Amino acid sequence: MNTLNNQLFADRVNHVPKSFIREILKVASMPDITSFAGGLPNPLLFPVNELSKCAEKLFRERGVEVLQYGASEGYYPLREIIANRYNEKQNLNITAENILITNGSQQALDLIGKVFINPGDEVLLERPTYLGALQCFGMFESHYREVSFNDGGLDIDQLRIELTDGDVKLFYSVPNFQNPTGGRYTLENRLDIVNTLKEHDLVTIEDDPYGEISFSGDLFPTLYSFRPDKTILLGSFSKVISPGLRVGWIVANKEIISKLIIMKQASDLHTSNLTQQILYEYLTKYNLDQHISQIRKIYKNQRDVMFEAIQKYFPADVLYTKPEGGMFIWLTLPHRFNARKLLQLAMNKGIVFVPGDTFYASKPDEQTLRLNFSNIPENKITKSMKILGELLNT
Amino acid sequence: MNTLNNQLFADRVNHVPKSFIREILKVASMPDITSFAGGLPNPLLFPVNELSKCAEKLFRERGVEVLQYGASEGYYPLREIIANRYNEKQNLNITAENILITNGSQQALDLIGKVFINPGDEVLLERPTYLGALQCFGMFESHYREVSFNDGGLDIDQLRIELTDGDVKLFYSVPNFQNPTGGRYTLENRLDIVNTLKEHDLVTIEDDPYGEISFSGDLFPTLYSFRPDKTILLGSFSKVISPGLRVGWIVANKEIISKLIIMKQASDLHTSNLTQQILYEYLTKYNLDQHISQIRKIYKNQRDVMFEAIQKYFPADVLYTKPEGGMFIWLTLPHRFNARKLLQLAMNKGIVFVPGDTFYASKPDEQTLRLNFSNIPENKITKSMKILGELLNT
Q1: Quick one: residue A153, left, alpha or beta (phi over 0 = left, psi -120 to 50 = alpha)?
Q2: Residue B262: CA atoms inside 13 Å, Cβ hemisphere, count?
Q3: For the segment A71-96, what is each residue's pLDDT rounded down to a tens digit?
């Protein structure tokens, strides 16, 4: 193979971090491996029969329409139903015109990057943050600033300091059950953040794929609700219905939506009509709230089993978050450990997880690691956490 | 609504041409309008029942797998079947590893832009060219050069001149039944092009959504076959099965594919498993060749009807291409006309088409227009072409 002249490649190629997770997931898919590494929803909860019936109905009633080209902004009735759900559950005041359908939230980040980020622009990230955001913003060659994310939310003093010079253009925020930490901003923290942002022009990206997987069912107000003209709210069906369909959405004011639509059209014309309309049918025929309450119950049990195992088998000086929702727990090991070294030992025992260093824009904390609890049977959680505990106690 | 500080938007926002077609298509979807404007396949040819059966089987047999996250590079068996088809039909020598699945060809352009284009890089385009390419490359703030596309292919002298300084990084080419002209590179023209490119480093993007819709069934060799390490070949199911599913693909050497996969992951993780696997099922259970030969037959008839109407009703000095495939005819009006003015008159009579000026990177030819023949019943073609002819004769 003749290799290409390397000068042909764009500069951004060197700014996208390779996903270490991809490598781990290759191991994770091998038989007899227990994987705490993935970020996968529990497939036993996928509404397979219901979605199958929706597809069958669609092909029967609107087959030709579903298979033809569609609108870049997405299927109108689906946009409408999403808007109405926000108005009902989150007390927003939006319409279908505030919604753009995307291929999952990841594409929302790409489209936002296209509309807002010039190379070198300052993007403020949580510390640690979602790896997919680092990969996406890397494509736009943005510069990063960071603000610490603790269990109850952001460090407000740090936030103030980072905003002082007015150079931050975008603030990427995952307020609910964040990937990787599982942490959620408290109500008080939200009010402090909104108050701090008040004097600033910057746009907040509020990425919220996990918000409804709140184990107690309580929902905190969105950042969008306080600052609708300068907040872009992202949602997704990936964690509450199915990720394989690749349907998410953006909520924003019409000015921002109109610019995002132009980028959506230039990027892939539109999201699959079939997957959009299957979800529309599902939402009109079935009870999503009931389905979500099932997810909450099962994930809560899995989290509880993981908590118990940590308390029972792990050294007392291992710190961990106490997520009230979502799919992840975040561990901080004492200084005598290194998460990548622990991973090596764990892999020899057939266990994988993601070392936390991969979730930092800079100066990674090598004592940290992320454990997924949504996609592992309870008995396997206990068994494998016990083995991890033994590794940490020797 | 508070408008945003305009400095928040990225420079690329001003480089993406608005699609005039979008505006026309809004008119086109009104009742009683005859639209020659769209680029839509004929929906009567969509294999609705077959795809419905595929979906039903999938949900029944692999529902959970289909609804879970999948690989960024695409569904392996689908990649394999696409590679094999090329090896069989086009005499290529590729494997699944040379294929990356995308959301239609439009996303392929986006991913290629991400891997190759820095702002200001020189991209060579056909004159006229596909509007979606202008929109996509606009996002990457590329500079354009142009080479004339006539009925038999590219102007080789111009091609040589544009390549002389060695600054062109990408050459965007649609060799078969191009949108908008319907033209196809002759075999001789292909050989001349490949010969001219020989001494150069640049990468050719060979966009080929229409190649198989060759009315006679003959296929010319791909540019990829001559220069596989420096050509990126794009294909799509949009014109031969269904555009609404949004599944296309990229063929390239493994070095290029590996860089494109990183961008695909950062852009939207992966293309919908459901749509990919439905197409895989279709390709294994049904005969795509038979389906394509039906498309060829019907589109050829529709083209013939349009030819007849031009000859019968249009002034003799209107020039037009003679496409041997695809979905479009390209007209060049005598100097006494202007296509946008004709469009105004035509709209008053309930007829729309796309003025050709929208397909030029620079110095648009305002005498040109594009007529779609794939998505209009034959009797409507004759009737509306007669009215257009009357407008041109008054």
Answers
A1: left
A2: 24
A3: 999 999 999 999 999 999 999 999 99
If one counts every other C-beta atom within 10 angstroms of the C-beta of residue B6, the result is 7
Per DSSP, the three-state class of A371 is: strand
The CATH number of the structural domain formed by A69-285 is: 3.40.640.10
| Mean of per-residue pLDDT scores for chain A | 95
Distance CA A171, CA A116 (A): 11
Q: Say how far apart CA B166 and CA B201 lie, in whole Å.
A: 8
Number of CB atoms found within 10 A of residue B356's CB: 23
Interface of A with B in 67-106 (CB under 8 A): 67-70, 72, 102-104, 106
Looking at CATH, the fold of the domain delimited by A9-47+290-392 is given as: Aspartate Aminotransferase, domain 1 (3.90.1150)
Cβ A172 vs Cβ A179: under 8 Å? no
**CB atoms < 10 A from the CB of A196, how many?**
16
The domain defined by B10-47+290-393 folds into: Aspartate Aminotransferase, domain 1 (3.90.1150)
Distances (CA, A) of B135 to A281, B4, B34, B90, B154: 33, 24, 26, 30, 22
Nearest partner of A52 among B57, B28, B326, judged by Cα: B57
Q: List C-alpha distances in Å: B80 to A190, B77, B158.
A: 49, 5, 38
Q: What confidence tens digit (pLDDT) does each residue in B96-140 have?
A: 999 999 999 999 999 999 999 999 999 999 999 999 999 999 999
Backbone angles phi, psi at B232, to 5 degrees: -115, 115
B103 → chain A, closest CA residue: A268
pLDDT at residue B2 is higher than 60: no
ipTM of the modeled complex: 0.96
Among chain B residues, CA nearest to A61? B48
Check pLDDT > 70 for residue A3.
no
Give the number of residues written for chain A: 394
Question: Among candidates B360, B339, B330, B372, which has minimal Cα distance to B150?
Answer: B330
pLDDT in tens, B348-391: 999 999 999 999 999 999 999 999 999 999 999 999 999 999 99
N-term to C-term CA, chain A: 49
Dig out the tokens for A223 from the structure.
Answer: 């950042």
Tokens of B7: 């400095």
Taking a contact as any Cβ pair under 8 Å apart, which residues of chain B between 264 and 283 contact chain A? Answer: 265-275, 278
Are the CB atoms for A298 and A306 separated by under 8 Å?
no
CATH code matching the domain that covers B48-285, chosen among 3.40.640.10, 2.40.30.70, 3.40.190.10, 3.60.21.10 = 3.40.640.10
Residue A23 forms contact with B (CB below 8 Å): no
Amino acid of residue A193 = I
What is the pTM assigned to this prediction? 0.97
Q: Which residue of B has its CA nearest to A74?
A: B244
d(CA A125, CA A133): 9
Residue B93: closest CA among B215, B199, B195, B228: B228
Q: Could you tell me which of A247, A265, A241, A235 has the C-alpha nearest to residue A103?
A: A247
- Count Cβ atoms within 10 A of the Cβ of residue B363 and give its class: 0-12 exposed, 13-18 middle, 19 or more buried: exposed
- Measured CA to CA, the distance from residue A25 to residue A69 in angstroms comes to 35
From A313's Cα to the closest Cα of chain B, the distance in A is: 32
- How many residues does this entry show for chain B? 394
- pLDDT tens for A156-202 read 999 999 999 999 999 999 999 999 999 999 999 999 999 999 989 99
Of the candidates A256, A250, A162, A160, the residue with the CA atom closest to the CA atom of residue A206: A250
Domain positions in chain A are 9-47+290-392, 69-285
CB contact under 8 A, A59 and B46: no
